[in-house]
Amino acid sequence: MTTIVPTSEEDPFLAVVQFTSQLAWADAGPEAAEPEISRLCREAEESIVAGKWLELASLMVTSAELVSSKMSEKDLECTYTIICSLVKNANSPEDVLEMVNAISSKVVQQPNDKASLRLKILFNLYNLLDHPYARFQVYMKSLTLAVEGKVTEYVVPSFKKIDNFLKEWNVDSKDQRELFLAIAKVLRENKSLVKESLNFLTKYLATFSNDDAQVLGEAKEEAVRAVIEFVKASSIFQCDLLDLPAVAQLEKDTKYAPVYQLLKIFLTQRLNAYSEFKAANSECLQSYGLVDEDCVTKMRLLSLVDLASDESGKIPYTSIKDTLQVKEEEVELWIVKAITAKLIDCKMDQMNQVVIVSRCSEREFGSKQWQSLRTKLATWRDNIGNVISTIESNKVTEEGSQSSSSTAAIQGLSVR
């Protein structure tokens, strides 16, 4: 971060106004330029004397943006360092918010002009602030700039700290909603971060409840996007979309009902259900850019997971062949694919033509899965309790036996 050490309180601010106004009027000639430069400097000085820091910030940032393309990166950074420092002079929290909005809105107006530097300016402004909500506003502006200026790589690392940021900012559900959607859009720019993008898009959709009937409709397009992203993703086999109200509303929507049906097939049904859907909705698949071959591949793997969860630890090769609709010699190939994708842990008994499953992934984690987990935990707790009771019982028995042996030994010594 650049550090400015002023010789007096007003000098840096007046210097910036004079510098930017001279650049703005450089081609107008002295007769036209000098009166305008003097006027701007006078307005700035009056604002400083009156302590009208918001007006000064608006004047300075407007002047700076008019000539930003004429400035070197060093000059632009120095100029904005001085402008941003004005937030420390704000007279109230409300003024801080207005000042931050005035500065950050101008910074993001020209995303294609020195985008990475503009992002750095926003980060510097963020670090100058003590006001939690003002920090949130600046962070949101940085996400917008990152996407429009194509510099998303600079903001992606910060997403790991989002939970901590949310605690610090203490924003309401509406602001959280905007944040999650903005992050999903940033991640969407990078094709290698599809899983992370879908994760934040799911967080966004999860902020809607059935009580939000008036705004639930605004999530419809993003709900469709989330479903299509999940279906397209070749390495994502689990999601928690099905029971979300923002997604469930698609089921009764004339236009999007097939999308919800497709999600239901990928999360709860097998390949035969997808084949029937494709026969009746081929245009729907094409309209969303879904490739049938890719969908079939994913559904075969998901169907194999479904088989593994249904059978009691053993799956006959014939069941895999029929369910996945493959040739007999391809069965083991698909088992290996499922293992590679970490969907199942198993051993192949080639002699008996069965797969012995030790673990399989869940396609979704809803109320049914929570209940199953609760039951398992209760069983484990009871088993551990029984083990502890047995150990304590054995310990008491052993101590009693040792006590009896000691008594007998003492009595034997007394006899002698």
Summarize the structure.
The chain is mainly α. 67% of the residues lie in helices and 4% in strands. Among the domains are: 129 residues, no CATH class; 53 residues, Winged helix-like DNA-binding domain superfamily/Winged helix DNA-binding domain (Arc Repressor Mutant, subunit A, Orthogonal Bundle).
Task: Tell me what the structure shows.
With 416 residues, the chain is mainly alpha-helical. Among the domains are: 1-129, no CATH class; 308-360, Winged helix-like DNA-binding domain superfamily/Winged helix DNA-binding domain (Arc Repressor Mutant, subunit A, Orthogonal Bundle). It is 67% helix and 4% strand. It has 20 helices and three strands. It has helices at residues 11-24, 30-50, 53-66, 73-84, 93-107, 115-128, 132-148, 162-169, 173-188, 194-206, 213-216, 220-232, 245-248, 257-268, 271-280, 282-287, 292-310, 317-324, 331-340, 367-415, and strands at residues 314-316, 344-349, 354-360. The chain has a three-stranded antiparallel beta sheet with strand order 1-3-2. α5 (93-107) packs parallel to α7 (132-148) and α6 (115-128) runs antiparallel to α7. The longest helix is centred in the C-terminal third of the chain and has 49 residues, at 367-415. Residues 1-10 have low confidence and may be disordered. It is found in: Cytoplasm. This is Eukaryotic translation initiation factor 3 subunit M. It holds the Pfam family PCI. Keywords: Cytoplasm, Initiation factor, Protein biosynthesis. One of its GO terms (molecular function) is translation initiation factor activity.
